[in-house]
Amino acid sequence: QVRLVESGGGLVQSGGSLRLSCAASGLTFSIYAMGWFRQAPGKEREFVAGMNWSGERTNYADSVKGRFTISRDSAKNTVYLQMNSLKSEDTAVYSCARAASRYSGVTTRDYEYEYWGQGTQVTVSS
């Protein structure tokens, strides 16, 4: 059974930090790019951060550059999103996703991701 399970969301004050985790099971992890997306109420899903299959390249949305860091531990089949200096506009449901193509580079396009987690809520209070 293919599963991507996010954890680590919650309520945090503005300026605080959270670390999201995404544990993968039932699918190959190490040779695929991984990404984080978010969706706020009434808004479209947007790309947040991504990492290529080897972990050597990353890409971030302009709105989170310098504050968020994506990383992966292929031995644990887990990808992380460290979020610092959180702002109220970061409030959203955050989902991780695995790319559809093997040995893939970083992509910001959600249709290039094949498997998705159910999401974890992040709420930043001002």
Describe the structure.
The chain is mainly beta and 126 residues long. The protein is built from no helices and eleven strands. It has strands at residues 3-7, 10-13, 18-25, 32-39, 46-51, 58-60, 68-73, 78-83, 92-102, 113-116, 120-125. Strands 2, 4, 5, 6, 9, 10 and 11 form a seven-stranded mixed beta sheet that branches. Strands 1-3-8-7 form a four-stranded antiparallel beta sheet, with no helix packed on it. β5 and β6 (58-60) form a beta hairpin. The protein is globular and about 40 Å long. It starts with a strand and ends with a strand. The mean pLDDT is 96.
Quick summary of this structure?
The protein has no helices and eleven strands. It has strands at residues 3-7, 10-13, 18-25, 32-39, 46-51, 58-60, 68-73, 78-83, 92-102, 113-116, 120-125.
Can you summarize the main beta sheet? Answer: 7 strands, mixed
Distance between the termini: 40 Å
Q: Please give the number of β-strands.
A: 11
Helix content: under 10%
The fraction of residues in strands falls at over 45%
Write down the overall mean pLDDT. Answer: 96
List the total number of helices: 0
The SS-based structural class is: mainly beta
Cα Rg: 13 Å
Q: Order of helices and strands, N to C? A: EEEEEEEEEEE
Shape: globular
- Poorly predicted ranges: none
Strands, helices and their partners?
Layout: E1 3-7, E2 10-13, E3 18-25, E4 32-39, E5 46-51, E6 58-60, E7 68-73, E8 78-83, E9 92-102, E10 113-116, E11 120-125
Parallel strand pairs: 2-11
Antiparallel strand pairs: 1-3, 3-8, 4-5, 4-9, 5-6, 7-8, 9-10, 9-11
